[in-house]
Design brief:
Layout (H helix, E strand, L loop, with lengths): L1 H32 L2 H22 L2 H8 L5 H31 L3 E2 L2 E2 L5 H21 L3 H25 L4 H25 L9 H11 L2 H12 L1 H9 L2 H37 L3 H32 L1 H4 L6 H27 L3 H53 L6 H7 L29
Antiparallel strand pairs: 1-2
């Protein structure tokens, strides 16, 4: 079991690196064939798709993921079908609203609203693809999960290059590439689900009630995450212009190099941490704390080195028209580094099943982020947006550390004392952590499900 877990973790790790590296490699192509304003339009469109993914899907894939372990096969297939029928209903309402706006001749970021009618279609397709991948993951089929993700990104890479570089299309080529590839993979995912008998188009009222009861409380958290991670492009377009949004989006894309390291580590380490915590060993907890310290030190060092060396090493990577992005990069990288600092505490909260703590931090910091984002962007442009992102991510890190330590205490100080203590009789002294009042020190503070 341990060998399979390690093997699966390595597959997810490698797949995550490759999948996230593909959009990063598109950056020098886009920055040479698109103006900053063109790139700003693509960033605005991508932000809209991310928002509509929440609105259309209602986070139903999370309910599918959970109920896979409780339902029989025939019930699960109708559960998936009910979730997709619900998504079709919200999609119909969204596309109708978009069509009305388009008929009125409205513009969004200087682009006719008719182009944004593609956004709900892409969001629905992404939701179907996500549902298929969630089921691959729950069935412990990492190769299927990873190959689907990489194939989708690679196709988007190829079609984007063809339309932008060879067909001479600008931002229109990027949007059409997203529509063609993502909708295509959505249709393919539906076919795979039906072929695997994981999807039956059957409406069940009991399933619908459960999906809404499970998912509606998750939507504020999803919207809060979108606010913290995506809203900045829209605010820059509204308060500055498309050119500034394009420069900012390029800086964020460069910063994803740090995020690739953070996400890849977290994918593997989280499973490892869960298995160590389950053993309820104080020595194991100390080891996890020390590993957390090492990771924080490594990601900080890498972030500092990358932020200040990138303008000299990657100037050719962006091209001359996007050189302003390097001025934003230190703050963008700082935001990614602070997000990396948060990951160990987030893992401990997840293990303790304190998801309410996670939701409260996410929602309250999202509200604060909107205030900082609007105020700083209005006064300092894209630099203000980058500062707001870094500040918010640091506050999120501080909140996670504080609440994690209250809900699920870890030996952050005693682990250092063990490491730094002089050896006595050839062995380091290992103190026993004092348990919280009324608790057994060997048992994690968690709720069984």
């Amino acid at each position: 079991m341990t060998t399979k877990l390690l093997k699966d973790s390595l597959i997810y790790f490698g797949g995550n690196v490759v999948n996230q590296a593909i959009p990063f490699l598109l950056l020098p192509i886009f920055t040479r064939y698109l103006t900053p304003a063109d790139y700003g339009i693509t960033a605005l469109f991508g932000s809209t798709v991310a928002l509509l993914f929440i609105v259309v899907g209602l986070t139903g894939h999370a309910a599918v993921n959970r109920m896979y372990f409780d339902l029989e096969a025939h019930d699960l297939s109708s559960y998936v079908g009910t979730a997709l029928i619900l998504a079709l209903g919200t999609f119909a309402a969204t596309i109708a609203a978009t069509a009305i706006v388009a008929v009125m001749g409205s513009q969004y970021g200087g682009v006719h609203a008719a182009w944004f009618a593609l956004a709900p279609c892409i969001a629905l397709a992404n939701y179907v693809t996500m549902t298929n991948q969630v089921l691959w993951s729950t069935q412990r089929r990492p190769w299927a999960y990873v190959s689907t993700s990489i194939a989708r990104s690679a196709c988007y890479f190829g079609v984007s290059i063809t339309l932008v570089a060879f067909a001479g299309m600008k931002w229109q080529g990027v949007i059409l590439a997203q529509a063609a590839v993502f909708i295509g993979f959505g249709i393919l995912s539906q076919w795979i689900l039906q072929r695997r008998r994981m999807l039956v188009w059957r409406w069940k009222r009991a399933h619908a009630r459960h999906i809404l009861r499970y998912c509606l409380p998750l939507i504020p958290n999803a919207l809060a995450s979108w606010t913290r991670n995506v809203l900045d492009r829209i605010v820059i377009v509204a308060l500055v212009d498309l050119h500034a949004a394009g420069i900012y989006a390029a800086a964020v894309a460069l910063g994803r190099a740090v995020a690739i390291v953070v996400d890849s580590f977290n994918t593997t380490w989280k499973n490892h941490a869960f298995s160590v915590l389950k053993a309820a060993s104080e020595r194991g907890r100390c080891r996890l704390v020390l590993e957390s310290y090492v990771f924080i030190a490594v990601v900080t060092t890498l972030g500092l080195g990358y932020a200040f060396s990138a303008p000299h090493l990657l100037d050719w990577f962006l091209g001359g028209r996007f050189h302003e992005a390097f001025a934003l990069l230190p703050l963008i990288v700082a935001a990614e580094v602070f997000d990396g600092w948060r990951r160990p505490s987030s893992t401990f909260l997840l293990y303790a099943q304190k998801t309410g703590h996670i939701a409260s931090i996410t929602v309250w910091t999202a509200i604060l982020h909107v205030v900082l984002l609007v105020g700083l962007t209005a006064n300092h442009g894209a630099m203000g947006a980058a500062l707001a992102s870094a500040t918010t991510n640091f506050l999120v890190f501080a909140g996670f550390v504080t609440l994690s330590q209250r809900a699920f205490p870890m030996p952050w100080l005693s682990a250092l004392k063990i490491t730094l203590a002089p050896h006595v009789g050839g062995a380091a002294h290992t103190p026993t952590a004092t348990p919280p009042a009324g608790k057994n020190s060997s048992q994690p503070d968690r709720t069984d499900t």
